[in-house]
Amino acid sequence: MSERLHKLLAQHGLGSRREIEKWMLDGRVLLNNRPAQPGDRYRGGDRVLIDGKDVTARLRTTGAPQVLIYHKSQGQPIFADSPLDSPAGGKSVMESLPAVRGVRWLVINTMQAGDSGLLLITSDGQLADALRRRAETTPAAYVARVLVPTPEFDTQSIPRVVQYDEETIEFESVEAAGGEGTNRWFRVESTRAHRRAAVRALFESRGLKVSRVIQVKFADLELPRDLPRGRHRELPAPRVAELYARAELTFPAEVEPAARLPERSRRRPPPDRRKAKRASVKGAGSNRPDAGRATSGEGRAGASASQGVAAGRGARGRGGSSAPGVAARPAGGRVKGAGKPAAGRPVGTRGAARSRRPAR
Q1: 218 Rama sector, left if φ>0, alpha if ψ -120 to 50, beta otherwise
Q2: Cα(321)–Cα(350) distance, rounded to whole angstroms?
Q3: What is the CA radius of gyration of the chain?
Q4: Is 95 exposed, middle or buried (0-12, 13-18, 19+ CB in 10 A)?
Q5: pLDDT for 228-273, tens place per residue?
Q6: Which of 76, 183, 190, 289 has a C-alpha 20 to 30 A away from that of 349?
Q7: What angle do the packed helices 237-246 and 125-133 form, to 10 degrees?
Q8: Is residue 340 within 8 Å of 307, Cβ to Cβ?
Q9: Pairing of strands 209-218, 116-122
Q10: Cα separation, 202 vs 229, whole angstroms
Q11: What are phi and psi of 129, to 5 degrees?
């Protein structure tokens, strides 16, 4: 079974369909080591590279699409490479989102860094592209903070139609939404999305100063009042299905979970390797200075005839005879390297060594 390559890449969140088509025309996408074209189809076993990076493994994984509602702060950039400063802890929107393996997040309702409010984000590039193309038929709502000349200002005098960017834009409603004194909030309903700048132009046409414009609605989704700025919330599956229906796409309700990589079994090394390791440890221990020290049982016996090694401190402490081949302790003090065979030195007991000491 084959599928159009740019469509498949968009479904896995690698970009929108328009972006991927442009990448193909620029030669950034390779299919089986050849420049891909927008009409190429992907089949099982094909190899796909984007900017030299192999993304074939991502196309083999499937996962349920996710949609997030993000409360964007004013001045917060969308991407990390934006030159503007971010008020939300220095993080961009994309840096504040959870990492998802095999996909990337895509913005549905595009915003500038100076905009704020409801930002809709998805992991399905096909859904993002379809909703962007339907922005002209997607309703939206905004709240604007306006400085009115007097507290008795008549809100009914605000027009519903404005001329903006050589286009006549008509809003569905403009209603008062709170505020005190000369600082008032107004809710503006629009039948078309991406009318944030036109909302500002609507009030400025009456000589009113606008300090903030916040998007609070996109399609049938409202910005939750309990969602703090800089935080996100995942939409439940029924609400995601409504977005797919609006985009005239089939909601992948029955989606198999992404295949998990097999865990590496922690097997013990083969017996021959374990024995070799133990033997190497014993061999290394023979080089230690105290390797010839006998066990407590051999210390009690007083000697080890097979190895000819001294019993160590335990034998000296009990005053027994030294083992053959071990030098007795001279009157002058300790002998460095005691416990090693010392040819030519007199053999005697510790008591004999004390007897040779001069009387004080």
Answers
A1: beta
A2: 7
A3: 41
A4: middle
A5: 999 999 999 999 999 999 999 988 754 444 444 444 455 666 666 6
A6: 289
A7: 50
A8: no
A9: parallel
A10: 26
A11: -70, -40
Condensed to tens digits (0 to 9), the pLDDT of residues 275-296 reads 554 545 455 444 444 444 444 4
Query: pLDDT at position 263, please?
Result: 46
The two tokens of residue 144 are: 């604007």
Within 10 angstroms of residue 12's Cβ, the number of other Cβ atoms is 21
For the entire predicted model, the pTM comes to 0.58
Query: Residue 52 and residue 276: Cα distance in Å, rounded?
Result: 46
Cβ atoms of 29 and 36 closer than 8 Å: yes
Single-letter residue type at 155:
T
Q: Which residue has the tokens 């994984």?
A: 61
pLDDT at 31 over 70: yes
